[in-house]
Amino acid sequence: MTFVSIKDAAGRAFTLGTPANEQSDPLTVSFRVTDFLPPGRYTLTWRTAASDGHLSRGSFEFIVLTEAPALTDRPTPQGGAGTTVSPNGMASSTRDGGEEETDAASSLSNSLARAFSFVGLLVLIGVTTFRTLVVPQARGIDPGLAARMEGRAAILGLAASVLVILTAFARILLESEMMSVVPGMQAMSMTDMTMHTRWGFALQLELGAALVALVSFAFATRRFRGAWSVASFSAIVLAVTPALAGHAAASPRFTSLLIASDFLHVLGGASWLGSLLCVMLIGVPISFTFEGTERWQSVAALVNAFSPVALFSAGIVVVSGVIASWVHVQHLTALWRTAYGQVLLVKLALVALTLMMGAYNFRRVQPQLVRQEGTSRLRQSAVLELSLGFLILLVTGFLTGISP
Predict the structure, then answer these.
(1) CB-based burial of residue 89 (10 Å sphere; 0-12 exposed, 13-18 middle, 19+ buried)?
(2) Which residue, 6, 114, 333, 396, has fewest beta-carbon neighbours within 10 Å?
(3) Dist CA 52 CA 251 (whole Å)
(4) Global pTM?
(5) Domains assigned to the chain
(6) Which residues, 6 or more positions from 102, have their beta carbon under 8 angstroms from its beta carbon?
(7) What is the DSSP letter of 135?
(8) In this predicted model, what pLDDT tens digit does every residue of 44-88 receive, in sequence order?
(9) SS3 of residue 385 by DSSP
(10) Chain center to CA of 246
């Protein structure tokens, strides 16, 4: 993912050797100039990307002199350019601040693609949590009713799997286009992006797990034994893919800790809000097929089974989020002085509001679910809680496009 081109003032390109890593510094890549460079001014243009796919590019100029000058300090030319003369007769001139650009990864299209990928992951993981941890623990629900909930959950899981697959292909396409925008650079195809980068490996894993989940949910709709177990395993694998394709894998500090933390963050958030979505879209409407008090008792049983899952998952979200923020934001002032910190503050505020809404549901609404008024209040508060959750995913899509 690292390419360099050298051109003279007339636009003629010169041949470079293959890139080589420096053993003393893993962040340094060197290229040997194989062509003879006549005296003159040259422009070196470069492009690279981190493990999370963030594009970084820029250029600088250097001058090949006719003879080696005396090794004396030179005054800095006006305009902020600094010149360094080396014994081999080459003088390099770098522009103040350079031309490095890292905004492409945080573009609207890339951010929305990541946000909808998170939506698909949240629903898919939430569906398996709903079927595995919520429905079996809902005491008093008729077995036939539980089977209907499982069937609709499988259909929702199918839709979520398709969304994850589509957004994965969209992200690969957008990433390859982003890496090919520098004039004169080698184009990077979707195949190159997917097969020859660490970021692409994470997307391969995501696509493979989503395809397995898609097939598993299809079998689950026909009541095949073991289908839900395979779907649940696929959901766990999918929970780790954002960490492998995001800031966690690209971090030079505490990489393993951040990957584990991001995995728990995704798993906790999806188990909490994803299963709440299933309760409101699947459990409550099916429970309303009953009449009288049996209807409200069925809703109460579902919510009572969901509450421990939500409380435990919310705790995981808070702890893992604090760990990731502590590592990525090394100084408190970065929260309001950097773009990453400012977007992170917005996400933290939304998470705090969502936690407050969840606490309100647990303390005030849940005890009233045996009556019609309680279910009506649950619908209103759950819609608000899920809306805040969608905003969190949208903000996260932009947050993951900004380098910490």
Answers:
(1) middle
(2) 333
(3) 9
(4) 0.79
(5) 3-94 (2.60.40), 104-399 (1.20.1630)
(6) 54, 55, 56, 403
(7) G
(8) 988 887 777 777 778 899 999 887 666 655 444 433 333 343 434
(9) helix
(10) 5
